[in-house]
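WARN no homologs supplied; continuing
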Amino acid sequence: MKQFPKSRTEKLVVQDFNDELLVYDRQRHKAHCLNQTAALIWKQCDGRTSVAEISRRLGEESGASGMIDEKIVWYGLEQLKRDHLLEPALDTSRGLSQPTSGRVNRRQMMRALGLTAAVALPVVTSMVAPTAAQAGSCTQANGVCSTPVQCCSGVCNNGSCV
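OK structure emitted
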């Protein structure tokens, strides 16, 4: 059965940076940095393009000879789904003989696929971003700090706001 993954677009802010893509999820207050491979996969997820076609396009974009193994695309899709960057209807367990969540790390996946330097494994790095209220708050005098930015006065002296 062919699957047609679709990228989530609502409440996201997307910015290209050289070979990476930064996606900020305004709903979950998380920032996701997609490497070039993960970004290429995510951008192809239009709900009309099959995983096989994404694999072919990934091979073309990366300069690899021929089509990239679909397992690489499925691995990337699983990461994107985990981080809520895909519409929820996609079942990523069908694309891999065993789901990779918590079972196979990137190094094991690369060994299993015999990857060369032609294509990097898709990587999504995520972090929780503070809400506007959290980012706008600061520590008053005599509060604990590690950098001057944390203090309302802008002065952190020996671990205490001045």
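Strands lie at 12-17, 20-25, 30-34, 124-128, 156-157, 160-161.
OK
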